[in-house]
Amino acid sequence: MSTPVLVGIGSNQNREACLQAALDALADWFGELALSPVYESPAVGFDGSPFLNMVAGFNTAMPLAELSRRFKKLETDHGRVRGSTRFAARTLDIDILTYGDQVGVFCGVELPRAEILVNAFVLKPLADVAGSRLHPQCGQSYQDLWQLHRAGPPLHKINFSWRGGIISNAVGCSKASDQGIG
């Protein structure tokens, strides 16, 4: 059985290379990806370089615990240093935003991730890639949630190159509809 998954990907150190590496790994593991545009936003919670953020959607039969383990290893393999500080510079940050319609804490992963309703750098790309999907807890579409969202620093959409194409519109290089993937 295949589960639709949405993940947030971010970096503020070696940003382009780290996002490209994350997308390469996701495409190798899961095949077709639904991709949001890439946005630049200021660091939140600390003084640091701006982040690049995006959302990717895919379908997988991989259990949540294995998915989480793979993402943590991928982050570490790309220079992520884990410490006691929650808000810090990151080479690569991959967060599982949703795993199907699960609600609760599973294998140490909060679903859906609370940041969806708080941070524009998560909600906007999520609305771009899966706008008609409903948030599993509040029941509103991500597009409607984005229309109601008013907090946070501004986002700037940037042109981002991956696998010979420019990701500048929702559902970029590897195409998928928000009805199926993610």
List keywords for this structure.
182 residues, Alpha-Beta Plaits, 6-stranded antiparallel beta sheet, 26% strand, globular, kinase activity
Fold topology:
Blueprint: E1 3-11, H1 15-30, E2 34-35, E3 38-41, E4 51-60, H2 64-77, E5 93-99, E6 104-106, E7 109-111, H3 120-130, H4 142-148, E8 156-158, E9 160-162, E10 165-167
Antiparallel strand pairs: 1-4, 1-5, 2-4, 3-4, 3-8, 6-7, 9-10
Helix pairs in contact: 3-4
Spatial gap, N to C terminus: 14 Å
Q: Which shape, going by the Cα principal axes?
A: globular
What order do the helices and strands follow?
Answer: EHEEEHEEEHHEEE
Question: Under the CATH scheme, which architecture would be assigned?
Answer: 2-Layer Sandwich
* Low-confidence sequence ranges: 170-179
* Beta-strand percentage range: 25-35%
Helix content: 25-40%
Number of domains in the coordinates? 1
State the CATH superfamily name. Answer: 7,8-Dihydro-6-hydroxymethylpterin-pyrophosphokinase HPPK
Name of the CATH first level: Alpha Beta
User: How many helices in DSSP terms?
Assistant: 4
Please, what is the average pLDDT?
Answer: 87
Biggest sheet statistics: 6 strands, antiparallel
CATH topology: Alpha-Beta Plaits
What is the CA-based Rg, rounded? 15 Å
Overall strand count: 10
| Class inferred from helices and paired strands | alpha+beta
